[in-house]
Structure formats: C-alpha cells, structure tokens
# Entry
Amino acid sequence: MSDRWTDRLSEYLDGELGPEERRELEAHLEECTECAEILDDLRRVIESAASLGDREPEKELWRGIEERIRREPPEIQVVTLFDTKRERRRISFSVPQLLAASIVLAVLSAGSVWMALRGAPGTGGTGPVALEPAVVVGDTRPGDAPVRQGGESGSVDAGSGEETPGRTGEAGSASGAASAGERGTVDGRLSAPRSARPLDRSGDAARLVGRDLTHDPTYDVAVADLERILDEGRDRLDPATVQTLEESLRTIDGAIEDARRALAADPANTELNTYLAGTRERKLELLRQASKIVTATT
Amino acid sequence: MTLTKNPDTTSSSGDAVDALLAASGDARAFERLYRRHAARIHTLAGRMIGADEADEATQDVFVRAWEKLKTFRGESAFGTWLHRLAVNLILARRAASATRKTRFGGDESHLETAPARPVTPELAMDFETAIARLPDGARQVFVLFDVEGYRHEEIAEMLSITTGTSKSQLHRARMILREHLK
# Structure
C-alpha cells in the first residue's frame, strides 16, 4: 500500500519539502499509520548508513601501488615565490635530473672538503675556510631592496591554483590551473619578497650565476619569520608531524649546505646555482605550508 | 579485518606535510598518506562498484593521486581532495565497465528500473550486503548521499542525471533497504 505521500517521505526527511507540503505531510502522518511506520523505517536506514564504518583492505595493496609509482614518479615541482612581473613560472626537475645533480653535488662537495682540508692557496693551513660570497652581478631593479611589510598587504601564496579532480569520465582532469601572478596569503603576516625574479631553467638560471644566493636578506627574513611562527605553534601540531617536518628540514638544510659549499668551489656553475635556488625555495615552501597548518589550528 | 569508524581522526596536519613531501617525490610520505586513507577509499570503492573491483580501483586511485599531487596545494583537506578524486575515478571506471558489458551483450540498464532481488530472512544479509545488492543506480545515489554526504546537486553532476532522478533513486534505495532492517 502506498499513497501519494509515500514517495515524498525521503524528501521530508531530507528537509527538501516546501513549508506547505511539509505541513500537509505532517497532517497526513497523524492519520496514516502506514506512512508513519515507513517514515520510522527510513529514519533507521539513514541512521544505519551514517554509522557504517570503513574496512581496511584485506590484501596488502601498497606494494602494487609502490611498483607503479616508482615507474612513474611525479614531476617534482619547485614553486617560485619570487615574483615581480606578475607572472609565474616554475622550475621543475625530473628525478633523473635531481639524481644527476646530487651526484654532481656529492662530487663537488667532496672536492671542496678535500680542498679545504688540503688547504686552499694562500690560506696556509687546514683550518676552516671562509666562504666568500660571490659577487652580485647587476640585475638590480626598483623594489629589489628587501621589503618587510606589516602584513596588511600583498602576502605570499605561491599555490593559488588547486586542481579540482575532474568529473565522471574525465577523472582528475585539470580545471583549476594556477592563476598567473596572483598573490594570495600565507597567513596574513608575510609579504611577498620583491627582490628576485621568477626563475626558469634557461636564461634565468644563467643569470643566477654570480648572484649571492646564500645571503639574501629578504629570504632570510621570510625564513626566520616562518620558523618563528612554526616554533610558537609547535605544541599544536601532532608530534609525528613535527618529527617529519624537522627531518625534512634537516634534509633540505643539508642539501643547501652541500650546494653552498659546492658553489664556493665553482661559483659559475649554473646547474648548482639553479639547484641551490630551488632547494632554498623548497625550504621556504615547506615552512610556508607548515605555518599555514599552525595558523589554521590556532 | 579492522573496522575504523571515523576516518576524519586522521591527522590533517600530518596529511598536509606528507602531501607536500610526496609531491616532491617522497614515496615514504605518500605511503603514510596511503595508510591513513586506504580504508576509506577501499570501502568507498567496494560500495560503489563491488568488492571484486575494489582492490584494483583503490590502487588506481592512489596511483592517480600520486600523479596529481602537484596540483594539490592544501586549500582543502587532503582527505577531501583524495575522496573527490576517488569518486570521479570510480564512477569513470563504472561507466567504462557498463560500456564493456553493453558492447558484449550485458546491458545492465535494466537494473535501473528492475526491482531489487527479493530478500528472504534466510539470506541473513547484513546492511553492507544489502547495499551491495541494490540496483546499480540506486546504490550509487544511496552511497553518495546517505553514506558519503554529497548533495543531490553534486550527485546529479557526477552521475549525469537530474536532481529529480537522484532523489527518486535515493528513495527507492531506502525503501528497499528498510526491508533488511525489519
């Protein structure tokens, strides 16, 4: 048995009836025990659905996933934070490129250590070698001076474009590509450094040569600020997250230090300059994301 | 088999950091993400397309997520991003499967209107099994609406149906399932 209201009971439960129909149905329920009974059953169905739990896969699926992702590593992305032309470009390294770079770094790093231990000409000893900053070659622009703003304007968010997974039949297709040059916010506290320009692998990488990538006050201020935010909010993070974060930062710092030493031995090496810039930006990006998490949990 | 009720208890801050690390090629970070979200995705796949395909679908989802990680920027929770990616992939898989069945003579469109298989008490099906036995269209809508919490407008878009069809399929599913709770 069903009447004209039976098929509307789900809409009633889901709050999708208009006020008039809702009143009519409620009046009907006063008189129709069958509909009232069905309504109770439907409520139980909804409650049962809401209480369903998740089941772990019975098989170990990770191994198969791992095999596939090892064959197809993602393109590694280094987001460029420095932006003055209101355009955005990215430096991307494939894994083979990074491996090659790491080998170069290891060789050069070992070489520089060997040179330091052996004693550079004129140093006359085996003590610590002062690494002299490379000379900055031109390319200074208006606004290149380090800028520290109060946080009320232009703040950093290199990641303004998050892809929304596609619709049926085009799963995962890009629909929200990064909007070029937009400055979002990190946490409303930091302004976008104005001192550097977007980088790419060709011309810009060459222009990095001779620039002092290890002494960029704007970068240092940004890193220090983010580290402070992170430090203050450390207690709000899951300990495992903090540990992961610290390990990652140590790894990145190690890579930066290696690159810095290697560059001291070979300041004109464009690959090393690019690698160092990318690694420093990666650190900044990691700190930025971590700070966002901290501020989000405030 | 382990039951976990609340997938949202996963550390969202841990997710964000691991997603960032994974996007830079850290497979160990990605494995941590997998461990935290595998149950939810696998269960979703099982309910949507059946236990037979759930394993493979789950692996596909995580491989696709790995490929797409560079597009995730933490503007939504990683779990939300992954879940939506999974729904889209699973529905695409279902559509491809339906096409194959049609091509080889197994038209399942009748399932949209056919009555559900009568259930006798002897079958003693639990609620999960009862969901699995729902007609295809009703099951999709029921899982997406009552289990996963999507709105009719979203479901209509995902399934390329009208909101009216979504509502009627939902009611149909509930009416069938109420018999299993008696």
Residues 115 and 121 of chain A are 9 Å apart (CA to CA). DSSP finds nine helices and three strands in chain A. The two ends of chain A are 56 Å apart (CA to CA). The longest helix of chain A spans residues 239-265.
